[in-house]
Amino acid sequence: MRRLSVLIALGILWGCSSARLQGTLVELSGTVNPLRMDSQLCWMLETGGMQEKAFYELHGPERLLQQLRRDNARVRLRALLRPECRPSCGVGTCIEVVEILSLQP
After folding, report:
1. Distance between terminal CA atoms of the chain?
2. Quick count: other Cβ atoms within 10 Å of Cβ 75?
3. What's this model's pTM, rounded to 2 decimal places?
4. Strands 53-59 and 93-104, how do they pair?
5. Which regions of the chain does DSSP assign to beta strands (E)?
6. Which of 20, 61, 76, 102 is deepest in the core (most CB within 10 A)?
7. CA quadruple 50, 78, 68, 104: dihedral positive or negative?
8. Is the pLDDT assigned to residue 8 strictly greater than 50?
9. pLDDT tens-place string over residues 76-99
């Protein structure tokens, strides 16, 4: 019975860790800005030019997000696209920041 419990626990842990790795890894460059919708404050990455803008809501480890929370900061980062996530502010696509490649305040 104990072995079964251990196997179930390992299966759950493996399932959780593999779920974190799923998603499309992308490299993005753009400007970070806050977006306030009602009482919700979201930090967004704006990419593209006048003709083709895209918005991404930033998620991920707090240690990385704290570095990004600066108005008009230029950033290049690696992130996982999270299409299953609904943006808190209702705008753009959720991304999970994995690595900050460069940051210019």
Report:
1. 56
2. 22
3. 0.74
4. parallel
5. 24-37, 40-48, 53-59, 73-81, 93-104
6. 76
7. negative
8. no
9. 999 999 989 999 988 899 999 999
